[in-house]
Design a protein that fits this description.
alpha/beta; 5-stranded parallel beta sheet; 7 helices
Length: 436
Amino acid sequence: MLDIVETVMKRLVILGAGLAGTMMLNKLARELDEDWEITIVDRDKEHHYQPGYLFIPFGIYSPDDVVRPKTDFFPEATDVIWGEVERLMPETNEVILAGGRRILYDVLIIATGTTPRPEETPGLGGKLWYEDAFDFYTLEGATKLGEKLATWEGGRLVINIAESIIKCPVAPLEFAFLADSYFTEKGIRDKVEIIYTTPLPGAFTKPIATEFLGDLLEKKGIQVVPDFYLEHVDEDRRVLVSYDEQEVPFDLLVSIPVNMGSDYVESSDMGDDDDLNFVPTDKETLQAKDYENVFVIGDATNVPTSKAGSVAHFMADILTENIVSFIAGRPLTAKFDGHANCFIETGFGKASLIDFNYETEPLPGKFPTPFVGPMSLLKETRLNHLGKLSFKWIYWHLLLTGKDLPVSTNMSMSGKTRQNGRKHSNGQKKELVEAQ
C-alpha cells in the first residue's frame, strides 16, 4: 500500500503593489518552488509612475504617461487581494483587512510605502488647497498645479518642505530648478520670486552635494531659507509660520507635506519612535527588528537612507536573497549598504546625478563605469537629462518586472573622486584623489 503524503502549501504575503511590492512579487515568483503561494494585497488597481509627477505641472508629461493597471505587471495566475489593510497581528501571523477578512502568512513583506499628509500641518489642506497651495507628490496635486501654472502671471512662489523625511528628497530641488526654467521660457521669470524653505541646514543632507546644489540655486536666483520647521500655515495672511516664529509670505505655495507610512502600522503597534508609521527595520538584512518572518522594503522602512525608487530597487535584490535564505533556514548573509542614486533635473534640458550609500556621501565622477560613464556625477549635463527621461521606459519594462539592471546592487567607488581635507567656504585648494 502506498503512503500518501499531504503537501501543506505555505503562503508568502506582500502588502503593497507599488514599485517595491511588485518587484518582490516578480523576483520571488521566479525563486520559490510550488510549495509556496504568493499573495499580494493592495487597495488601488492603478500603478502610478511617481517620478513622473514632477513633470506634470510643467506640461512635460500628462497623467496618461504615468498611470497603468497594476495587473499588467503581475505574473500570470497571481493571487491578488484588493483591499485595505486594517491591522497586523504578527504574533499569530495574520493580516486583518477592512471588513474583517483575515489572511494567514508564513512570511510577510511590508511594502506599503509612504504618502503625503497635508492634514498633519495646521492650515495646510484647507481653503487654499488646490487654489493657491498645491502638492506635486500626488497625481491630483500635480495635475491641478499644472493648471494653475499655465495661467499664473507671477508673484512670490514658495516651495516648502514640511518634514525632512520625505520620498524622493531631491524632487523639491528639481521642482525649483524646473520652475526657474519654465518661467524663463514663458518670459515671466523677472515677475516670479522663488523661495525654497527647508528644515535642513542647506540644500541637501551631505556637504559636497549641498555645496554643488546650493551654488546652482544661487546662480538661478532661488533664495534658500534653511532650518525652517513649519508649524502652521496662516491661510488668511498667506504666510508660513515656523516653530521659532519665522514667517515666509507666499502668493503661490508648493508644499511637500509631512510624509507618513500606512496607518495600520500604528494600529498594529509596529511603528518607530517618530510617530511617522515607518517600520523598525534592520538596515542591512531588511528584516523587521521585532519579527523574524516579517521583512520590510522601500519607503515603509525606517532605515537611514533616501526614500526613493532606486533604493527600493537595490533593496529588492538583497531582500530576495535573504528571504530565500530565511525559508531554507540559512543565515541572512546578504547586506544592503544603503545604496541610492538619483537624477536631479536642473532645468533647460540638463540634469545632474548623485550616487551614495550609508557611509559615502555623493561624490563627483563618472557613473556607472569610470572614465567612460556615460553619466556624470554632481555635474550638469544634457546626457543626464536624457537618462532621467529614459528611466520611465526602464521603470515600466525592467524595474517593475524584477529584471536585472547593469548597475551594481551595492555602491561602487569606481569612477568616483574622493575629496580629502575639503573646506567649503574659505577657498582652500581641493585635494582630489581618484577612487580605485
